[in-house]
Recover the amino acids of this structure.
């Protein structure tokens, strides 16, 4: 097998085993465990060790703890909750460049998901924190286990292949640029929080979470790319879950669920490891499939209805994020121009004085 094939089988087998465990035991929010497993297994490179995993878990716990504090004490106090969200968003986005992989997304997920799920009254907020932590830790265990069971050493070495190069970290932007980007992201995310909490749009909370995720790339071109990728991912994952849902309605057994998910995981894993530019969209499509699988098998609603609702929420999140970034960048640009004009005015006055004296 080649290294690509080893990765493909590792993702497919790891995702299937995670689905079998989570749907077999069926603890609260268990559908999140296969989601975390796929996200971790899709990361390139070998197992990065428990030290790095501990850093990522620590960041998630920080986000979950902040979300718990907001949910328990400040969610009914908007004059305190909104500035607190703004400070947390700014801290997360400002430190994004120096954070371990995926930690920005997990911290944003923690401070947004816990209050939203807590407001739905299905679980107490502290139980939401507990089960999200269990699911993420289980995802790391699955990554470690399947890197152990399906190691890269299974791949046949290619003598003609170039020596692998260690990926270099991108250069850190200046502090001023990081602060500007973090300010734009904070403005977009906080405005979404204000709108969704003030209008009590709990049933559309996915859109708010997507907005906060997209706001991490405060650039209109990047947001358009993210919108296009997320829309394509929803279409891919939505079509897959509609087909799978109807098959599960015809054969509603646990064994058939596992067999079906294995072939779906194998199909997505092959696309995810293809090396094509669309590989990222297939990864997001698989995570979309897993989220919709959890929502469609856990309730009596139709998977197609969830699919169309998710499409609408993602499209709204993308357009909202792009519009909010454009408005925020325009306001910041005008403020910089006013400041620059204020600094030039004294200089022009001094020059005019010298010219008058010279005359």
């Amino acid at each position: 097998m080649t290294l690509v094939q080893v990765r493909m089988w590792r993702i497919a087998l790891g995702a299937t085993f995670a689905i079998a465990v989570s749907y077999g035991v069926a603890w609260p929010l268990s559908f999140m465990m296969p989601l975390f497993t796929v996200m971790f297994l899709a990361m390139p490179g070998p197992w990065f060790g428990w030290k790095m995993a501990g850093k990522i878990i620590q960041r998630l716990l920080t986000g979950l703890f902040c979300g718990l504090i907001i949910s328990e004490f400040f969610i009914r106090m908007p004059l305190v909750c909104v500035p607190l969200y703004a400070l947390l968003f700014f801290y997360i986005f400002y430190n994004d460049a120096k954070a371990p992989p995926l930690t920005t997304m997990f911290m944003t997920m923690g401070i947004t998901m816990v209050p939203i799920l807590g407001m739905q009254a299905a679980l107490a907020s502290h139980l939401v924190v507990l089960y999200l932590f269990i699911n993420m830790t289980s995802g790391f265990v699955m990554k470690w286990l399947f890197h152990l069971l399906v190691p890269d050493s299974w791949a046949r070495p290619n003598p003609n292949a170039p020596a692998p190069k260690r990926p270099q970290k991108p250069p850190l932007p200046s502090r001023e640029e990081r602060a500007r980007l973090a300010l734009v992201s904070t403005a977009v995310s906080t405005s979404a929080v204000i709108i969704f909490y003030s209008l009590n749009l709990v049933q559309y909370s996915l859109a708010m979470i997507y907005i906060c995720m997209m706001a991490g790339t405060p650039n209109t071109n990047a947001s358009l790319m993210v919108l296009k990728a997320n829309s394509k991912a929803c279409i891919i994952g939505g079509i897959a879950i509609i087909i799978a849902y109807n098959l599960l309605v015809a054969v509603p057994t646990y064994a058939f669920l596992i067999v079906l998910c294995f072939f779906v995981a194998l199909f997505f894993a092959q696309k995810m490891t293809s090396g094509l530019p669309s590989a990222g969209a297939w990864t997001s499509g698989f995570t979309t499939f897993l989220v919709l699988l959890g929502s469609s098998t856990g309730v009596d609603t139709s998977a197609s209805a969830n699919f169309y609702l998710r499409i609408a929420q993602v499209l709204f999140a993308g357009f909202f994020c792009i519009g909010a970034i454009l408005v925020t960048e325009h306001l910041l640009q005008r403020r910089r121009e006013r400041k620059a004009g204020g600094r030039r005015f004294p200089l022009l006055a001094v020059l005019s004085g010298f010219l008058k004296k010279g005359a």
Remarks:
- Residues 268 and 286 are 6 Å apart (CA to CA).
- The radius of gyration is 24 Å.
